[in-house]
Write a structure and sequence with these properties.
Elements lengths: L1 E5 L3 H12 L3 E5 L3 H8 L10 H10 L3 E4 L2 H7 L2 E4 L14 H13 L4 E5 L7 H10 L6 E5 L9 H6 L4 E4 L3 H11 L9 E4 L1 H32 L3 H9 L20 H14 L5 H24 L8 E5 L14 H11 L3 E5 L4 H8 L4 E2 L12 E4 L11 H7 L4 E4 L6 H6 L3 E3 L5
Parallel strand pairs: 1-2, 1-4, 2-3, 4-5, 5-6, 7-8, 9-10, 9-12, 10-11, 12-13, 13-14
Helix pairs in contact: 1-3, 4-5, 5-6, 9-11, 9-12, 12-13
Length: about 425
Amino acid sequence: MKICVIGTGYVGLVAGTCLAEMGNDVICVDNNEEKLAQLKNGIIPIFEPGLEELIKTNVSENRLSFSSDLKSAVEKSLLCFIAVGTPQGEDGSADLQYVCQVAESIGEAMNDYKVIVDKSTVPVGTAEKVTAIIKSKTNHTFDVVSNPEFLKQGAAVEDFLKPDRVVVGSNSEKATKIMQELYAPFVRTGNPVIIMDVKSAEMTKYASNAFLAVKISYANEIANICEKVGADAEKVRIGMCSDKRIGSQFLFPGLGYGGSCFPKDVKAILNTAKQYHCDYQMLEAADNINKLQRKLFVDKILKHFDNDVKGKTIAVWGLAFKPKTDDMREAPSITIINTLLEQGANIKAYDPKAIESAKFHFGNKITYTKSSYEALENTEALLLLTEWNEFRNPDFERIKTLMKAPVIFDGRNQYNNKNVKELGFTYYRIGKA
């Protein structure tokens, strides 16, 4: 099929590349000429395992190209994916200005029947807005469908190529058949393409992410209670996860959720609930617990130092909001490090992929190191904030020799409590006194 994907951010770049991988002719469109030049030269603006290789392969096979000419891309395509950003507004709502601008441009470029696919995460009713905008610009026939993405950063390529399910919101039989044909190669193992009305598809994305955010906040709230009563949150988690009705995913206590999706989507669905005068106590509680989790972690650090970290040098392992990405959006590290800096602490930080992203947030206020062990030199505490694989089994004896004081604050419950303490460390974790 002939496809254009408008927006080469995280979603658009992964979607366009994976659609090309299945033999489609894909044009990825962006108005950022610098980014386009990088992509054409094989320089990928985001870190996502497997993506760089797929882009290079599909570009060399002439199935994937990059352009700033939206009009030409639309004219050549049957399917036009809208994958631009929907940043969070001041009231928590999704800002649709870029979606609306693209819809207007698509309408002006229409030369035949098109299927317009809302791939960006957008609130209920967006397809109606897009339809109205395009209708005001053209007499050509078209359909607007909702096709929300469910990609996990760090596993996005695998998620797109082998989806658990594909959700298509369509009110048109013609558009539905085209979307089913498009996704048929991705679901050959039998995972479903779920067809529903457009508004239900728009809601499904927010409902899914909000539910996972609630699970994370629930795990953290239980962990905090465990600390107070003397229980071990990790053992409680294992006991819970053995119940098939509950499952193990997203029930790990830690520093709360971050990234580009969960925080923004929870606030967006809260905003929708307010607009329609719905009760929203659970979602609001999940959001509040998430903010509190970072404060409680900082409180542990301050308590250890008798509320005085001025002049203390603290090491940080992990800056990205999760491993296998360089994404710092809403990362717990931002809140934690900034709070410690305000208290007068010095920070030495290492992350395998997110150093450049971190410089945008911290500038020269912290020291960046080239290795995890370099970050430990002459420090009085180690904060583990992101659970990269290379942090899972470090040389603890070497750590002790590098640090002024063997103190670890583990925000991801990565180490064995008993073993680390026997090695002579003062060890703090989530959900265990």
